[in-house]
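Thread title: Can someone regenerate the structure for this chain?

I was given the following input by a collaborator and told the matching structure tokens would be attached. They weren't. Posting the sequence so someone can regenerate them.
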Amino acid sequence: MRLISLAAIAVASALLAGCGRATSPAETPAPAATPVRAVLVESVQVPNDVRAVGVLAPRDEIRLAFKIGGVIDQIAVEAGDRVQQGQLLAVLKRTEVDASVSQAAEAVEKARRDLERARRLQADEVATEEQVQNLTTAYNVARSNLDAVRFNARFARIEAPVDGLVLQRLSEESELVQGGQPVFVLGATGAGWVVRAALADRDAVRVDLGDVARVVFDAFPGREFAGKVTRVASSADPLTGTFEVEIEVAPDGVRFARGLVAKIALALAEGERVGAQTVVPVTAIVEANGHDATVYVLDADANVARRKQIAVGRIVGDRVIVLAGLDAGEQVITDGAAWLADGKPVRLVGDTG
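Best answer:
Regenerated them for you:
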């Protein structure tokens, strides 16, 4: 019995010793360090401009239609054709149109005969003055109706109102169209070309009429075109919340086409802030609300991430201007920042930019 008691005491001591080692703070495994990349916060010269992407189009776009409905007899042009003022573009089948003119003319002739007969009868004291007046009114109405029908008949054909470019052909021959239904979209090239771009509110309020712009097109590599702001929208697009800006640009010897994509750099007034600015990559921003943003910076001494609140300005390319909260030379975490928390251990991988 004494031997059994000593053995039990030995087993209990061993178990207590084992538990003591498992709960020892010195032997608790350290949390794994998150692999990250970091770049140096820089101070660079920021250009004094606003950059945007827009689409080229003629300044004036005219939607052409027949005034009356009917069946299209002929379409003389295709999309992309250049046309001259007065050139015939399309015409309706004339059968119904001519019949309407003939019917109106016959109505005028009948009203004229009725009026002359009434006047003769009035001279013989058979017709009254009231009857003559009523027939005079009927004759005048018939003449006015004939003028209206003839006017509509003249617009049973579409002619180019100005020199321009056929941007769209919306109907085909033998197609039934209603009066006022667009058949062509014509670009009035004589009025010049413009690039229309959408700007965020913070950029739109910095742009004024007459501001100079530099415009480049992928279609014309190596060429830069001079532009000028001719219109800034006074209200935002209800769907996108952006403001449309119109930049006038000259072809300068090349053949422009509607829909060419343009990259625009708008030079701003001299009073705008310019010069050395603190910038960080956009990928370093983990949260943002207006000018308030959050980043993680590297604490190199402790090898941990520190969460920082900063104030940011506009985006310049792939970087954002830092207005407050960071200094040049600090290391801001880019890759891996989304999985961090304040004070979390990190491990740098790759080169520090």
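Residues 111 and 137 are 9 Å apart (CA to CA).
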